[in-house]
Amino acid sequence: MGERASKGRTAVERRSERELVVTRIFDAPVRLVFDAWTKPELFKLWWAPKSMGVPLLSCEMDVRTGGGYRIAFGHDAADSMAFFGKYLEVSPPSRLVWTNDEGGGAVTTVTFEEKDGGTLLVLQELYPSTEALDEAFLGMEDAMPEQFEQLDDLLATLRASV
């Protein structure tokens, strides 16, 4: 796994019938990367892939074990699509685990590990079935690299302002 992740490159792979793993090394300290995942004002700046042309309407995050989140995409409330769930584990600044209560019902685990002055990020999604992963994988193979590219750009801006 460690060999596949490199700075500026997002690796998206199926690990099993129900598991998807995305890795990337960001040129930023762990705390900054963790903040970008847990502070709504930062999260909304990078999460929606710009190529989709669908803006993030709202982002509510109660980032604590047992807390919840709700993220809505769309041009207005009438055409919005929401993603929501609960945080199962929040261990700053090294680990986040949450449920995805819409659609496939995957459980997502993200780990943040210091690596050569940067951050190795590993996102793992475990789906309830092969079919649920098949459906999600189609969109994620293109979306995740774009999202992580946007996160990289945000982190560069944040590093420059520190």
Notes on the structure:
The protein has a single domain, classed as Alpha-D-Glucose-1,6-Bisphosphate, Chain A, domain 4 (2-Layer Sandwich), CATH 3.30.530.20. Helix 1 (30-38) crosses helix 2 (40-46). Strands 1-2-8-7-6-5-4-3 form an 8-stranded antiparallel beta sheet, covered by helices on one side. By secondary structure, it is α+β, with helices and mostly antiparallel strands. Strand 3 and strand 4 form a beta hairpin. Helix content is 30%, strand content 36%. The protein is globular, with a radius of gyration of 15 Å. It is built from 3 helices and 8 strands, in the order E-E-H-H-E-E-E-E-E-E-H. The protein has helices at 30-38, 40-46, 130-161; strands spanning 11-14, 19-26, 56-61, 68-73, 81-91, 95-99, 107-115, 118-126.
Q: What's the SSE pattern?
A: EEHHEEEEEEH
Number of helices: 3
Instruction: Give the name of the CATH superfamily.
Output: START domain
**Cα Rg:** 15 Å
| Spans of at least 5 consecutive residues with low confidence | none
CATH architecture tag: 2-Layer Sandwich
Characterize the main sheet: 8 strands, antiparallel
Please identify the structural class as seen in this structure. alpha+beta
Q: Mean of the pLDDT scores?
A: 90
